[in-house]
Amino acid sequence: MIQKTLTSFDLKQIADSGQCFRMLPAEEANTYTVISGPHFLKAAQDGQTVTFFCEPEELPFWERYFDLDTDYDAFRKAINPRDAYLKQAADFGQGVRILRQDLWEMIITFIISQQQTIPSIRRRVEDLSHAYGSRLPVPGTFYSFPSPEQLSAASLEDLLAMKLGYRAKYIKRACEDACSGRLDLSYLGSLSYEDAMDYLTGFYGIGEKVANCICLFGLHHIDAFPVDTWIRKILMNRYAPKSRLPKDLPQSRVCEALIQKHFSRYRGFAGVMQQYIFYYERNAGEDLHGPS
DNA sequence: TGGCAGGGGCCTG
DNA sequence: CAGGCCCCTGCC
């Protein structure tokens, strides 16, 4: 067990931030279990004191996972003071970090995520881990996320039976591609953000949004800015100057323009801002919202 | 209770 | 660009 004093770090906020789906509350208060690939951690937080229940040799892995070397205060200080909404969102979620998660796990998880709710994504990921992952040698019943080889044991019918719907065929193909080497994870890991986007969107079932999530949470390209239905609504409601909107401009073009206008100043770390907004919108009570 | 809308979208025509 | 898609959940 190792204790550290951390700022801009909140286990609960991270668990509720919608970027990781295998970080769950433990029985003990203020305690969470986290599984990433084959790694397992139990961690507790009391104010700025965070306790890592793991062997010392595992600590570097989790320090990297939680991105502890990055200065999130600096990101928040870079926020445009005239952007009251973003400032409020960042203050609200100042314990959120962009995790360095397992690349393969992120690919499958965000393929699963399309047209699903967050609780539902959790269940699907957990079901896959129990069915095809490895039991972890820790107290309790925990399973690693299945490797490409392990997940390849699932037939299309198996995946359909696990309520993956039309995503089953995408997952099947991703397993085949990863095992054949056509989807080369270490090569993907060597690419720039732009090249990684091109590479990822070339695979079946991976579009721009999913690729951005993989870049942000699996490759730590923190410039990635995933635009989902929530972010799209926020952009339209909070950032679109309604008077100047051409009526027939496609919504995707409007979003592009709004991102360019309001978030290009955060080039290099715009994804952190996206995450503050996403967390705020999903977790702040109505009384904390600004004027609508 | 049943029907409908929508969910951290993507592929096909 | 429009339509369809698997299945679940929340809402009326």
UniProtKB/TrEMBL annotation:
Domain HhH-GPD: 112-279
Reaction it catalyzes: 2'-deoxyribonucleotide-(2'-deoxyribose 5'-phosphate)-2'-deoxyribonucleotide-DNA = a 3'-end 2'-deoxyribonucleotide-(2,3-dehydro-2,3-deoxyribose 5'-phosphate)-DNA + a 5'-end 5'-phospho-2'-deoxyribonucleoside-DNA + H(+)
Leading EC class: lyase
Protein family membership: Belongs to the type-1 OGG1 family.
Pfam families per the UniProt record, alphabetical: HhH-GPD, OGG_N
Keywords: DNA damage, DNA repair, Glycosidase, Hydrolase, Lyase, Multifunctional enzyme
Entry EC no(s): 4.2.99.18
PANTHER family the UniProt entry points to: 8-OXOGUANINE DNA GLYCOSYLASE (PTHR10242), N-GLYCOSYLASE_DNA LYASE (PTHR10242:SF2)
Protein name according to UniProt: DNA-(apurinic or apyrimidinic site) lyase
